[in-house]
């Protein structure tokens, strides 16, 4: 089994504990790699390396344009290695190769885009109300950033944070998910081969309590950027508050796909199926609630069932597979638990409803694509994030009722609206409390388009020009050009 060490101060690093844990392949159910089990001592080394690299040495010496040029090389090295990195991700999280490869071939754009922004970070001159002063502002990198990532799209979600952090001039300590550490370690090695100075990006692997906790509490960490569950997000937000740290949180969702009777129903059905069954439902923007207008409910549900029933399950590396396994044993148990909960709450199974017992699924952790009808929006299956291939169908009467149902959850990450009425499209987009609304499409993202959540779905935005501000501090400089410095007891 391949051993994976951490990466600290420009070199592979063995864990202080000397221990390694196993990473499992969700398709075979068997371990395939051994990963260094870090602890607070490793975190301290990594944060100090990042702090030193931030304060001194080649990184702060680079001009902003040189930093941008370096980032374009980092993008190129990701492009050159996309296939290999995607294969590692599939081995670790079981998502389809087509999906992970698609993410990896797109990821260089984050480094090109934010690399291009690196030398466009400008301050201002303040047209002051007082005479005798020249006042200007500067934007300074916040310092050492802790990046904590989940298992569903390890490198893509890392890149969303790493690219703007580097463009801003920050240095970084990454703690990948304990379920999917390998691709992050490989990537960071590649970035160093492409010329990234040592200490700028460090990786400490291990578990949340051993590595995540000391990392977010480390006094030299100035900003925490996290993607994962709302439960962990709350813990991190509290730690950030205690340390007066900047924090960005991309948490879960219970996103509605809202289908009106006037929609292009074929397109809508494709969008709804892709929203919940692509990536086996393991995305923060999964369209896990289908709100469908009463008049088309039965017909639309049967179209969905016909579309999803033949979906091929099996080896995520195979081009013909459409639904892969669940990434972790714990997540597999959680998804099956929610299938039981929904049935106990009185929802009716229209498709699936349990573990997949097909020969092509072997020993993997597969759940049948599942559709529940007869769901009330108050049920747990409509309110809690399952993070699996489980759709809750809820009928509505009119636009007002659809808006009320859509917003009646504590999350607010994404929403889909399917209609051919342009006025209705704009009205719905305006009234839904979520960070993203897709009209007649679903699950589209871009490095140029801001992404993030309302309510319990998180704080801050990734992607788009504004994302770089998340990694910058404002400084104001006052120059006295002739004002008298007189009476010390009067404010100027
Ligand atoms: P998690 O939120 O616990 O883990 C995400 C990352 O946080 C991992 O790197 C983990 O090691 C780290 N972490 C855990 N506890 C920490 C702590 N106290 N301090 C700092 N870092 C800590 O998610 P987990 O356990 O992998 O999955 C649980 C649920 O989270 C899933 O069932 C799903 O509902 C949700 N989830 C949401 C994701 C999203 O994209 N919004 C991604 C992955 C999971
Ligand atoms: Mg794994």
Structural write-up:
By secondary structure, this protein is α/β, with parallel strands linked by helices. It has two domains: 2-251 and 457-477, Aldehyde Dehydrogenase, Chain A, domain 1; 256-439, Aldehyde Dehydrogenase, Chain A, domain 2 (3-Layer(aba) Sandwich), CATH 3.40.309. 37% of the residues lie in helices and 22% in strands. It is built from 16 helices and 23 strands. The chain has helices at residues 40-55, 58-61, 64-80, 82-93, 97-106, 108-117, 154-168, 182-193, 208-217, 230-242, 265-277, 297-308, 329-344, 380-383, 399-407, 422-431; strands at residues 2-4, 6-8, 11-13, 20-25, 30-36, 125-126, 133-141, 144-148, 171-175, 201-203, 221-227, 246-250, 256-259, 289-293, 348-351, 370-373, 390-396, 411-412, 414-418, 436-439, 454-455, 458-459, 472-480. The strands form six sheets. Strands 15-16-17-14-13-19-20 form a seven-stranded mixed β-sheet, with helices on both faces. β19, α16 and β20 (436-439) form a beta-alpha-beta unit. α4 packs across α5 (97-106) and α4 packs antiparallel against α8. The protein is globular and about 80 Å long. The N and C termini lie far apart (68 Å). The mean pLDDT is 97. The structure holds 1,4-dihydronicotinamide adenine dinucleotide (NAI) and magnesium ion. Residues 148-152, 175, 177-178, 207-208, 212-213, 216, 227-229, 232, 235-236, 251-252, 284, 331, 334, 385, 387 line the site of 1,4-dihydronicotinamide adenine dinucleotide (NAI).
- What radius of gyration results from the CA coordinates? 24 Å
Amount of beta strand: 15-25%
General form:
globular
User: What are the segments in which pLDDT stays under 50 over at least 5 consecutive residues?
Assistant: none
Distance between the termini: 68 Å
Structural class of the secondary structure composition? Answer: alpha/beta
Gross CATH architecture of the largest domain: 3-Layer(aba) Sandwich
CATH class of the largest domain, named Alpha Beta
Main beta sheet, described?
7 strands, mixed
Number of helices: 16
Mean pLDDT level:
97
Question: What's the helical proportion of residues?
Answer: 25-40%
What is bound: which ligands? Answer: 1,4-dihydronicotinamide adenine dinucleotide, magnesium ion
- Full CATH superfamily name of the largest domain: Aldehyde Dehydrogenase, Chain A, domain 1
Strand order of the largest sheet: 15-16-17-14-13-19-20
Question: Could you tell me the number of beta strands?
Answer: 23
The tally of domains stands at 2
The CATH topology name of the largest domain reads Aldehyde Dehydrogenase, Chain A, domain 1
